[in-house]
Amino acid sequence: NSVSPLITVKPVKGLIDEKFQIVVEHLNPGQTFTLHSLIHSEDDDFWEAFGHYVSDAKGTVKVSEDQCLGGSYAGFEPMGLLWSMKTVPGSRTGLRLRKKDVCTPVIVRISVYKGHISDGFKEESCLGCAVTERWYMAPGVHRVELRHSGVQGTLFLPPGPGPFPGILDMWGGGGGLVEYRAALLASHGYVSLAVEYLPRGDSTESSPDVLPGKSYFEAAFTLLKDHPQVASDQVALLGLSLGTSIALALAVYSTVVHPKCMVCISGSHVMSANVSIPNFFAEIYKKKHKILTDENNHMIWRNIILPIPTDPNEKLEVGKIKCPLLFIVGGDDQTWATAESAEDIEKMMEQAGNRNLLTVLSYPGAGHLIEPPYSPHIRNSKFLLSQTKTKVIMLWGGETKLHSYAQEDSWQKILKFLEHHLNHSSNIVDY
């Protein structure tokens, strides 16, 4: 066969949570070949995945329908070339692939190589390649930096006049301003405010003397609720890790924050009632003897809050929650005791008579970092403790295939939950 293989990826431009279709044609019948994906990250690292395939009698393979025989993934996996990505051999260790500039796409290069190969892709010449752009921000979404009423964050506005439902998006103890999830939610029709409440661990700026408390989050919620493009009675809270504890605390104790619903990922209700972040870190420091390390010296924090306290003063009074709550846990979360927390929350809400508001999604084999779909599974990575500026490697947990399933399934269920409770029809904007 003198004709070069033709590789097509559709869509050429799409949202990060959209499935793509990869078709390879003009191969010889029964030809063995390797599909390879490559991302050059903003941190100047390379991430790759690869799958071994055999073409059919027509010299064609459709990745969405045909079996991968091995590689960084195997089986019928339309998106395996994304979720099974790892850094290329020889890379720096402890990395995490995260989009910083959401105004530019993630560019994925898909290449075809002869035979079944598993390494040395850089040295091999490819038979053909295609490029696809994966976006967090759909066309027409506006990004607005927010520095108002003491609140720091980024607001993402869907195209059109609205009013739209709103989502206050709170990340975890790693600090900094993380925008990509809020950008993606705006692409689904929500005005989303990614709020910064801790300095990034590696920030050169001196940490603020006073870390934000309840009033900071109340100001952020109010800014979002009062925005002219937001339906003021249709605002949700979304928290991951420490952001979950803050979301729960606001829903229980704030007289200002009245969410229509809440999504909590990989977090816990084990926190004192005063929403004091310094106290939260001080409590962790007090219990640092409970931190374990694995054989690679990666930190396991989940025991810090175990056993789940019986003293009600050490837990948020989730029995007072008045809105629907979607609580998502990974069964192999090594960072925080989220499964045990979910059980206790269920018990507390049962006793208080508001159990009907709780939906728990539990994913066996998923770790702590449950991200939007098709993000590479990060089992461990460098983590800068924002309070002490100490660099450690955290064991987040998870098995790649199960974790990837959890990311895809939970995201679909998050969108459905938000649609249902915020009276919203989520339409992806087409490119």
Give the domain tally.
Answer: 2
- Summed over residues and divided by their number, the pLDDT gives a mean of 93
Question: What summary fits the major beta sheet?
Answer: 8 strands, mixed
Radius of gyration: 22 Å
Strand content: 25-35%
Give the oligomer, counting copies of the same chain as homo and different chains as hetero: single chain
Strand order of the largest sheet: 11-12-14-13-15-16-19-20
Cα-to-Cα separation, first versus last residue:
36 Å
CATH topology grouping of the largest domain: Rossmann fold
The helix/strand series, from N terminus to C terminus, equals EEEEEEEHEEEEEEHEHEHEHEEEHEEEH
Number of strands: 22
Tally of separate helices: 7
Structural class: alpha/beta
Identify the overall geometry.
globular
Question: Which homologous superfamily in CATH is the superfamily of the largest domain?
Answer: Alpha/Beta hydrolase fold, catalytic domain
Helix content: 10-25%
Detail the poorly predicted runs: none
Given this structure, which CATH class of the largest domain is correct? Alpha Beta
Would you identify the CATH architecture of the largest domain? 3-Layer(aba) Sandwich
InterPro entries: AB_hydrolase_fold, Acyl-CoA_thioEstase_long-chain, BAAT_C, Thio_Ohase/aa_AcTrfase, Thio_Ohase/BAAT_N
Domain BAAT/Acyl-CoA thioester hydrolase C-terminal: 215-423
Active site: 241, 333, 368
Family: Belongs to the C/M/P thioester hydrolase family.
